[in-house]
Batch of 4 targets.
Target 1
Amino acid sequence: MSFFDSKANKEVTIMFMNENVRCGNCGGFLNRDDTLFDEQAEVFFCDNDCLDEWADDHFDDIMKQYKRMHIYAG
Ligand SMILES: [Zn+2]
């Protein structure tokens, strides 16, 4: 967030202590400290319910990832 400070005659940007992020499933704004974070996909989630819904929508991606990590063709 930024605004114009007329006394200082310059644009001022406010940095919030709590960085807000958006849920990768429902798009809701979240306090970063309260989220689940998928390090691989770099997606935030509100809670387990949103993670489960997201996983349903991304089944193919998750299977690809799973196969790459866990399945070895002999
Ligand atoms: Zn959510």
Target 2
Amino acid sequence: MSTPTVRLPTGESIGAARRRAGQIVAALKRRYPDARVPLHHENAFQLLVATILSAQCTDAMVNRVTPVLFARYRTARDFAAARPRDLEALIRPTGFFRQKTKAIIGASRTLVERFGGEVPRTMEDLLTLDGVGRKTANVILGGFYGTPGVVVDTHVRRLSQRLALTGSDEPERIEQDLMLLIPRRAWSALSLRLIFFGREVCTARSPRCPACPLNRFCPSAKYRGAPPWMARRGRGQTARRPGAGAAAGRARSGRTARTARTPAGPRPKRS
Ligand code: SF4
């Protein structure tokens, strides 16, 4: 059996990258000692619904919507029997409400029919649910069941590339690369901390490299967050060029400030 490898864009050895990754893990832990999922929930099913709702929406908005939602629909059985129109009206502020309604009702029906209304504890079973891909499954596994997993959302993808911990643009490959470089016990918390850090400091368009607490460990610091190995990445993957502010960038792309945010959770269909 061949040993899994990581092809790093800087040509760094795996041993050196592991040591550097350890320093990154420690620095992020100091900055964000509390690495809990910010989506309010009381059980695995509520976390599943909240994570589906968080696609292209802020956690704060999801947390405003879910108290009313969960007061009206308590179990997977309730959601499975919900009228789409009623659900859509309640979750409308989170955006993509029709797709999310479909995903939530579909997932709930599968939970009732195949899993006795309980959220399964394995990746394989979670992936059978509507609207659930590896990212959402890892949020549930790590955030509720305590099974470590690497959640690769847009922030984790961008930061892994800037930090040169992966040479890939594919979420599954990035997940594998991080799993090889980071100790298993740190997977879930690191994902959350990278998401927090990507929203706050190492943003898509304006990474704050000079003031960044990771700049000593980051090969992209000298490129102001736009290293050559990311030169051909898609929109939002490279840093802001001088004179191209976030608002200007959004105006060019036709996105609003709200839709430009990138959430911890999945995209509406499957992620
Ligand atoms: S040094 Fe710059 S590119 Fe690297 S993690 Fe910090 S903000 Fe991001």
Target 3
Amino acid sequence: MQAKHPSTRSYKTISPLLGENVYIDSSSVIVGDIQIGEDSSIWPLVAARGDVNIIRIGKRTNVQDGTVLHVTRKTPNNPEGHPLIIGDDVTIGHKAMLHGCQLGNRILVGMGTIIMDGAKVEDDVIIGAGTLVPPNKVLQSGWLYFGNPMKKARELNDAEIQFLAKSAENYVLLKDEYLAES
Ligand SMILES: CC(C)(COP(=O)(O)OP(=O)(O)OC[C@H]1O[C@@H](n2cnc3c(N)ncnc32)[C@H](O)[C@@H]1OP(=O)(O)O)[C@@H](O)C(=O)NCCC(=O)NCCS
């Protein structure tokens, strides 16, 4: 992994680490203990702050425009705090807010969704636009969730589950076009 990119900054001497062929828009801000896996992409105006805990982003995951990523510090009552862990092939729609939560693989986070501390999203889940995922909720694999308050809406069909990997692949191809121009 490489460390240097104009949008990355260190916090207490720890700098973000980027995998091969990661695309980061120059208007985003990526601070501190953050690792981003190969072929992932960070789009305009994303703010990601790995200061009081860590942020890990897997491979082929896209974080779309205006999204905020942050974490919660370790305390005596909560010794691990809440890191932010995001898996592979995840699509994070525009202006989402992911705070101290854990996401598995092949997930769509709809535009404007808020996911709070300690929530866990299993593999192969769609979260509709504008959803509020409260703290410590577990979202079960193969289901659609949406709403505020969040509801477990219905099981995903095969086409929707296949679309999750396709959505991530589309973003890999798009970021390759942007990388070719930079
Ligand atoms: C939830 C979603 C997947 C649609 O699921 P669906 O099962 O096809 O839902 P439908 O469009 O048939 O709507 C079913 C009902 O849910 C409601 N609904 C749809 N999306 C909703 C959402 N995000 N939040 C709350 N209600 C929603 C509809 O109004 C409808 O309600 P009604 O029966 O009272 O009329 C889609 O609306 C969505 O939010 N997609 C996320 C897209 C996105 O943000 N992508 C990231 C950027 S690329």
Target 4
Amino acid sequence: MASYKILISGPVGSGKTTAVSTLSDIPVVKTDAKPTDGVAALKDSTTVAMDYGTIDLGDGNKVHLYGTPGQERFKFMWEILVQGSIGLILLINNNHPHPLRELELFLEAFARSIEQIPFSVGITHMDECPRPTIQQYSQLLAAKKHVVPLFSVDARSKEDMNLLVLAMLSMIAPEIALENFKGLTLNAHPHHLRYTKRQRH
Ligand SMILES: Nc1nc2c(ncn2[C@@H]2O[C@H](COP(=O)(O)OP(=O)(O)OP(=O)(O)O)[C@@H](O)[C@H]2O)c(=O)[nH]1
Ligand SMILES: [Mg+2]
């Protein structure tokens, strides 16, 4: 029986709370509050402490999933929540004015952690704004010597979010990820991870 703590972080409105809700097998613990600052123009509610949910992996194995607040003024929570995490998922909202810069900001904020734990990156809102492209993100990550799973995802899509978690698990606990995870299978090669949707019959 094993449990894995995975943290989801990223800027305001990138879909962290949505992702925890999409993925969790239990009702999510949220700490959403009405924004009192500039965020009010963007959203009706924002996370002020954390989101929490779990994913049941079978055989008693569990993922404990935490979401951070996006606002930098709650940065102290990023540091608290990353403690004990064995994987980090960064979600970036492509429909923001400077999403590449936001990715850089979060890579810097979690610099110490990502030296030690694996991370993956999901780009949300690409349906609303196709640029920058995945290739541009890939180039930015490569320039910083990060070889990590990178996907375009919709935080509302269970399949998309499962794929991101599967990518995390393949680095943290390959024995679980390689078996079969929520209808997705992983074709792994050390330098070449490929994630495919299982054929439906
Ligand atoms: N169009 C579109 N909407 C999305 C996508 N992913 C998430 N959303 C929506 O974007 C919004 C994201 O809101 P939250 O989940 O509260 O974002 P958050 O990252 O938790 O934000 P903070 O807690 O304020 O930092 C929700 O309304 C989602 O339904 C996507 O890929 N495309
Ligand atoms: Mg939130």
